[in-house]
Amino acid sequence: MKLTSLTVISPIDGRYGHDTELLRDIFSEFSFLKYRLKVEIEWFKKIVLISKELKINSIKSEKLLLIDNILNKFNEKDAKFIKRLEKKTNHDVKALEYFLKNKIFKLKELSFLSEFVHFACTSEDINNIAYALMIKDARNKIILPLWSKITKILKKMIFQYKSIPILCMTHGQPATPSTVGKEIANFYYRINRQYKKIQNIEILGKINGATGNYNAHLSAYPDIDWHHISKKFVISLGIGWNPYTTQIEPHDYIAEFFSCISLVNTILINFNRDIWGYISLGYFKQKIVDSEIGSSVMPHKINPINFENSEGNLGLSNALMNHMIQKLPISRWQRDLSDSTVLRNLGVAVAYAVIAYHSVILGLGKLEVNTVQLLNNLEQNWSILSEPIQTVMRRYGIKNSYEKLKKLTRGQKINKDIIHLFISKLKIPNCEKERLKKMTPFNYIGESIRIVDNIK
Questions:
Q1: First-to-final CA distance of the chain
Q2: Has residue 448 been placed in a domain?
């Protein structure tokens, strides 16, 4: 069976392939090979550039452009050749090394240096930096732009709906009102905090040999400060340097990175469920798309499928990320291979999140506030004013204030007339009675508007 979007096993590359296409440039097998090839080439160039120390014949810098062309012209034919080598060697990085050696050996000006490909490296010296560069690109090119898009939409909604009152629910029961804008602001602020945090997570790499001590390096060139060279090399690639490792970079930063994404995913699950509930209550309407069908048997339905899709995929993403958070920082002694197969699924974990982000963006684009329903719900719940009334009564020392409002409102059908009659009988200043009577379920919204105006 030919591999197409219809025949792939995973919906990531099938049903949702249009949402995850950009991830192929980072997390596909082809891209992983290319990232590793970049690291091998840059390390080879580093060796050549310190040729005086290594007592290698010096190479003119323009000759290094020939090496760069190997990466720039890397294609699927090259990748397939590496995979054929891997079948023979049963070792992916060694196959890549042989490929690069072969390419350099064919360059007359550089052929004598072919043995300096993968010089003093263990496989993880190459792999860990490749993964770091992949994660860096995923963060900067995929995750941050999508988070930014979500927060921009939320921020627009905050100010658009900042004055529209909403009956809040605590324990699923009517509670103190807020505004639609303020309730959206709660989620905006939470996501925006993590947006800032993820930018500051240091992505790390190492290149220090089989157990992190430069043993092989020093055996060849004992008078060179390889620790310093390692630092300069890793930092030159735009990532942070981890000076203390075993054979592997311990992946703590990946756990930090996924913890941040997982938290945003959890916040969005919370958001999706709240919006789903608000749609069910009629607080929000969904824009009608004539060509869409909500149910195969019930023609009237407009289902909140985008928020449901987002919730489901966020759960899948978190399941994988949480496993990686717990698994990746653990390695038996100086190295075991149990992290290798897990790391190859980094893109899968990110992909489920990306699918979810696209879904929530699509869902938000269909929402319209149903002001009529919001006001109707508030009108049916005058009892919520028991909170401010009993609080003012306490201010004036009226005993059992809470208990008196409890007796009046709990389990009772309360309206404006009942509330105003109760206020009229209170032994408080008339000005306070007038102030309380001006309160309604529609304007008892505290500082919600001013708080929203201060949001950044």
A1: 53
A2: no
